[in-house]
Amino acid sequence: MRTVIWSEMAKKDYANNIDYLLSNWSEKEAMIFINSVEDVIRGLESGNVDFTPTNIKDVRRCVVCKQVSLFYRVRENRVELLRFWNNYQDRSNLKIY
């Protein structure tokens, strides 16, 4: 089993996504997002899955849902969640570190 570590930016992005869904959609959509993130994290913890490499050294991307991607990296036996990124934003503005 891998250990999962959340960066401060990942925590902030995650909370902002949930706040947005609760403000503009419904609790049902927020729960779908939360459950999708939990499913991805379980897969990453198990070590049975790794997602698409990016052009950023050691960083991979997982589409959590159509609107949001998770950027993360694996170091030794630890998964570092870096950012939850809205896929409709300009990716040139993405700051991972």
Could you characterize the architecture of this molecule?
This protein is of the alpha+beta class and 97 residues long. It has a single domain, classed as YaeB-like fold. The chain has 2 helices and 5 strands; from the N terminus they run E-H-H-E-E-E-E. The chain has helices at residues 8-24, 27-46; strands at residues 3-6, 52-53, 59-65, 68-75, 78-86. A 5-stranded mixed β-sheet has the order 1-5-4-3-2. A hairpin with a 2-residue loop joins strand 3 and strand 4 (68-75). Helix 1 runs antiparallel to helix 2. It is globular.
Strand and helix map with partners:
Elements: E1 3-6, H1 8-24, H2 27-46, E2 52-53, E3 59-65, E4 68-75, E5 78-86
Parallel strand pairs: 1-5
Antiparallel strand pairs: 2-3, 3-4, 4-5
Described by strand count, sense and barrel closure, the largest sheet is: 5 strands, mixed
At the fourth level of CATH, the homologous superfamily is: RelE-like
| Terminus-to-terminus distance | 25 Å
How many strand segments? 5
Residue share in helix? 25-40%
What would you report as the Rg, rounded to the nearest angstrom? Answer: 13 Å
Q: What would you call the structural class?
A: alpha+beta
The CATH architecture category equals 2-Layer Sandwich
The helix tally amounts to: 2
Concise account of the structure shown:
Helices cover 38% and strands 31% of the residues. It contains 2 helices and 5 strands. The protein has a 5-stranded mixed β-sheet with strand order 1-5-4-3-2.
